[in-house]
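call fold(seq) -> tokens
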Amino acid sequence: MVKKFLFLIPLSLFLCSAHGVGLDADAPKTITADKIEYDLGSKSIKTTGTTTITNQTGQNVTLVDAYIGDRNISASGSRVVLYLSRNTRITAASIEKDGDITTALEPTYTTCANCGDKIEAWNLSASSLTHDSTAREMIFYDPVLWIYDVPVFWFPQISYPDPTVKYKSGFLFASFNSTNNMGMQINLPLYLNFSNYHDATITTSYLTRENPLWQAEHRLNLNHSSMLTKGSYTHNQAGVDRWHVFNKDRVDLGDNARAFLFLNRTSDKTYLQQYNFYGDQPYLDSGARLELFSRSGYATTEVHSFQELRVLHGNQTNPSGDILPNIHGVYQTEPVFGNTYFSFMGDVLGINKSGSSASQRLIGSGRIVSPWVLPLGQRLTLSASARYDVYNFINTPIYGAPGDFSGMRGRFLPSGYAEWSLPFIKPGTNWTHVIEPKVRFTVQRHLENPAFVNNDSAGSLLSDVMLFSDDRLAGYDLWANGHYADYGASWRAFSHDGWSSEVFLGQSYDFFAPTNLDPNSGFHYGASDYVGRIGLYSNDWLSILNRFRFDNEELELRHLESTVRFGAKDYAEAGYIRATQLTDTLAQNRVINEAVLGGGMSLTERLSVRARVIYNITDHNLQQQNIGLYYDHPCYTISLSYYKDGAIRIYQNGENYYGASRFGFQFALKLTEGNLTQDRDAQYFSRYETGEAYLKQR
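ret:
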């Protein structure tokens, strides 16, 4: 006869490693057995036959002829099968617990049970196992590692943290890859745990054609702050010290303030790319930032120091000096009448350039914005603003002044706009259509010399997203200079089953000749180029977007960006960029074309392939190519990758970079934790392709 009783049994009964995985010691447990005896004198429990003990979370242990002493000080049983989660299983011929020490004979341990395979991917067997609940450590004697039922490793003794230990210092799996003309690279990471919120990883990389490379990553996460530092160092065969440091710290200063510190530096311009730490950064930025924010406003104070990584052509580079400091603040009032509100902005910028050149800028501005909804659904927004700039120059070259200039300059910049739109909405059975014409007329002061310097703007390229914006030029130094109008119309449609589409066409009209703009910008004295976009989307499997710009007179295609993506898990994607480069407003230099092709496909339920190619059609040059084969098993992942970098960087000082091919191999175990009702798989892996190491070990 099967009997079922409810007892308060501590989790330490659950063999060696089940002690204390997230439940209180007096949480209720269910015991099912052929026969259960309870001794009132010794306060012990004895079961006969097959016994199953299940806790609240669904973890269960099955054993034969169990004995549980008073307060679980002693316990025993045979033919034990324990599930800590759906995939984590421990078996043993017998167990015996005496105080804090539990001993199991002929144990096996795996985190790959019930993975759907006929043969477990791996398990660890031993002649005996001892668990010390105080030290939270398991010791396997004569252990053998089995991979798909094949013995691959034996050692006299292995110690292993029990599942109550979240993090444990030790070596992690090695990874392999090839590097730029430096041969094979073997990465050996060592994980160091200081606490549950503080750890580090030190990686030694051996290269067959270069000296060793050392990498380090330090992580600290507190309740109101976080710190992350990554770095590397090598003394190469040419006798040169090469290194990099990436650091970002955040500190919360109460509910309305926080601070950031960031340091990004490298020994030279090509080190990051050659050693595969490069992420397409045009320059490295170091400094600090303080943020203050409230319901109606915010303020920031920041300093920046830049390290240039680009190949320079003339002075077309930004930023062009260290920012010491930049203070920016914005405040917006509650509506004062209707929906009308005021906003105020202040900005202080200091620029230190090489030598004795420096400049400071002070901006103060105020704006009133009044949005209205008129009859027939018309929308009207009126706005007026006034801004005053004060500049202080120290040995600085400025527009309109011979040589370097020292002194003060100021300018008053009033402006305003009126924006009108009228959306026509037509609901349908399957689709809802919206047609909306929009016009904005902007009035601005026209200056003979609209800018003194350009420290914070890379100019402007006309696009569909720029129309109807408050500032058509990035930054504050450049001034749009004069009246202009934006006008266009859009059509949008939305279906009830997740489809949507859009079409937009627009143009800008300048009443004064634009100044200080790139000839490729698309702005002209009078009507600008035409810009627009066409898109079709499905939230499940399709995305198509085309953004374009046509010449305002000949309707020649000046710029085109096209992206297409089909599918989600299995997908195909394509992209195309076409840009016409002009040396002046009339002369055409050349057309630049670039194509992107990519995709991913599941070959089996677990095996997939992903690839991507970037090709410069104009120069007939392969910019970038990568392909990877990925096997995602419930217990581990394996990846094989190939990457080809076609970039060529020629610097005046000879620190040139020529792209090459790389191969990579990675293997990572998935260690599971949790319980049967809340099966949580914690996956920890190493990623070396981008120089980032997310290394954890349970």
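The chain is about 0% helix and 60% strand.
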